[in-house]
Write a structure and sequence with these properties.
Helix content is 82%, strand content 0%. The longest helix has 26 residues.
């Protein structure tokens, strides 16, 4: 397996982790896992972003966006639950 294929697999894994994180960010106790999934996905995408050439970075940007959105949504949901 060549290096470019490995980077694409990591990018797809970061997207999947970001989607899972977004889906479970609304569940009150389980959203702690969402923070972990989102951060791991964003870090994977961030690492791949700098290892890939300049012309094909759309998967990595999508993975970073989903991971950071999952983390932010989980933190916002926790802050909202702490009010009550």
């Amino acid at each position: 397996m060549d290096d470019k294929r490995k980077l694409h697999i990591l990018a797809i894994l970061s997207i999947v982790l970001g989607i899972i994180g977004l889906l479970i960010a609304w569940i009150p106790v389980v959203n702690n896992l969402s923070i972990g999934f989102g951060l791991i996905g964003a870090l994977l995408a961030f690492a791949c972003y700098f290892l890939e050439d300049k012309k094909d970075r759309s998967l990595y940007i999508c993975g970073m966006t989903l991971g950071l959105a999952a983390t932010g949504l989980a933190l916002a949901a926790q802050a909202q639950l702490l009010r009550y």
